[in-house]
Amino acid sequence: MNAKQVLDVKGLACPMPIVKTKKAMEALQSGEV
């Protein structure tokens, strides 16, 4: 399996990792997770 997108949220304070993850997941198409 190859990654189409990598999201690095290391070092960010809450709630930014959650916000960035949510936005990234909304941009994905069905079956890309």
UniProtKB/TrEMBL annotation:
Residue stretches making up the UPF0033 domain: 7-31
Keyword field: Transferase
Entry's Gene Ontology molecular function annotations: transferase activity
Signal peptide: none
Protein name: Sulfurtransferase TusA family protein
